[in-house]
Amino acid sequence: MKSNNKENCFRKVLMTGNDAIAEGALRAGCRFYAGYPITPQNELTSYMAIHMPEYQGVFIQAESELAAINMVFGASAAGFRAMTSSSSPGISLKQEGISYLAGCELPAVIVNIMRGGPGLGNIAPAQSDYFQATKGGGHGDYHSIVFAPSSVQEAYNLMFAAFYLADKFRTPVMILGDGMLGQMMEPVVLHSAPLEFSENIDKPWALTGCKDRNPNVIRSLYLKEGALEALNERLQKRYQMIEKTQQRFEEDFVNDAQVIVVSYGAMARIVKSVVKKLRQRKLKVGYIRPITLWPFPVKAFNRKKTTVKYLVVEMSYGQMVEDVCLSVPDKKKVYFLGRAGGAIPDTGQITRKIYKLLR
Amino acid sequence: MKKIYSRPQSLYDVVTHYCPGCGHGIVHKLVAQVVDELQIREKVIAVAPVGCAVLAYDYWNFDCTEAAHGRALAVATGIKRMRPETVVFTYQGDGDLAAIGTNETIHTANRGENLTTIFINNAVYGMTGGQMAPTTLLGQKTTTTPHGRKEQEGRPLKISELLAQLEGVYYVERVSLHTPQQVINAQKAIKQAFQNQIEEKGFSLVEILSPCPTYWNCSAQEAMDWIAEFMVKEFPLGRIK
To answer: CB-CB: which of B43, B63, B79 is closest to A74?
Structure first.
């Protein structure tokens, strides 16, 4: 697809999720991208190879996922908005680098277009990397902010928030999509950065050469007694701030609902269609769709009515369901439906499960 | 009285954490001297490895970053591509550059990135307590080759000669620290490697044979003698490319 170089132009185009993420990143100010081939995210890398030069940015096909994430580390340390993308097995390889980014307090955006696992798995959509994405993933006590877009338009939109929040909180941000989102084509309105994410964030810590200032050092090694604890305390304080201010979710039909279905990403598209159909049959069903997976939108589960049942639907054998259990007063009211390995819970399965819970 | 010699501005006046007889202190000073001579202190960015020299930024008075073990050249690539006006170098040991980071080393060199690499070869892993390195000599005793390194454990890896085969590589030289004359040669080579980057010639690497008396289990003088007697035979000195 030929992109228009004018960042302010509003156009409606048909794009795959992978292309839209790349286009969103470029318009959000990403000027460095390094990636390594892996399906089902290859279109994203190709899009960057074609269009990054239009923004005078740097594209590198790295020799491995390890090299790619560490090139991103370098570009970020130099003060630029930088991104890498991959799919599940490749993201496992990037975990060391993500931990270093977190430890060195460097912003970066990492895109995971999830596929079936464990191991080499397959190239079908899955949501089995939820634990890895939201609980740290690499070594050490850290979190990345995790966004889970459920449409191509939302994937595009979230890139502005991703780069902005990465800079603001000096933290890695992950876009957690799946093969379905990456590969499907939908119309997207290409817009410029929303006002709330367009503030330019100063980076006095960046490596630029120490002209007219003391040298900057980027490090995560702290050997002096108490120094590493101090870093961790600083990070935890930041994470608490993120948890307080950055929870995002979408919900509908929840006020009178007896059953609320919880799902995210492409899976939530199927859940939404089921819930809307059952509402037409006057059944008291609603849905919650977390948009941030970390911080998990605990706020969405804060309700007085204690008889509500939650059905968590995932393309995994039950990962987000643990966070739902931690967010509700009574985890006995939490039920689960999941398939993995490239299989997707279908509308029939979800409908039958809801009917069972309504009985 | 005229001052004819002093500590370079690029080197902090601090107490060393390196062991007595270690080569890192010498090379840190050589790098600092070269940075001063070329007047690039305000535009140099160093990438420190994982290994004894991770703390290089405690000694150098210019911008520095750490890199994950073996990934220094990937990090340096990211910095230099985004800030081509800076002078970026990596400082890496043999384990970092020629074992865990071999892939990054070869591909960065093959891309002909306009970078400078200072490669410290002391034939052993220092920071972790003296294990076998890719450059450990055959027969050399380490904590993981207690009876001496055998062929099956790998022969000393000549990464500099390997890299010299690549078209993207502009300059490779091997130097040593075992006599004052060798130290002077080492400084010349380091200066050349920085000069090349300033002139945008491409990838330059200086391999430096460096003593580790602590894990060679000998005195500082014996370590220098061991370089002269054994190491230079396995790793011949001079310009490789």
So the answer is: B79
